Amino acid sequence: MIVSLQFYAEVAEAESWINERIPILTNADLGKDEDSVQALLKKLDALDLDIDNFNNNIGELAALSQGLVQRGHFDSKNIADQQTEIEARYREIQDLTSSRRAKLMDNKKLFEFFREADEVSVWIKEREVIAASEDYGTDVEHVQVSHNDLIFL
Length: 153
Known about the structure:
With 153 residues, the protein is mainly alpha-helical. The chain has a single domain (2-113), classed as Methane Monooxygenase Hydroxylase, Chain G, domain 1 (Up-down Bundle). The protein is 84% helix and 0% strand. The protein is built from 4 helices and no strands. It is rod-shaped, with a radius of gyration of 30 Å.
């Protein structure tokens, strides 16, 4: 009887632990720039490690529930159902972690693209100034210098 009470208490604690993490994993904030996305990815890495470590608790619960069921505990069906449910909830937060990581990585790539596009745009504008120059040169040497400037654009 005491073991089953311990099992139910640990299941309640696991449910609470999982419920605390779901809002973090379903948060709509995916960052507003590269730096904020990177910060969110670091937080997710820490949470991911925390979730991986919680797997030990899930394993201990599984051993406890199997022991109770194998000994023919009067509430075996409910114990097995509770264990199945907590394992499903644990897989759910693992899936949410993967999904959030994919979304953050997509956002990171998007912000990197924007930054690179801005850099290319600045580069093109700098080159347009040189290319639009109507200074054709006054002698061969001056024309060659202007030509080299255009080649290295």
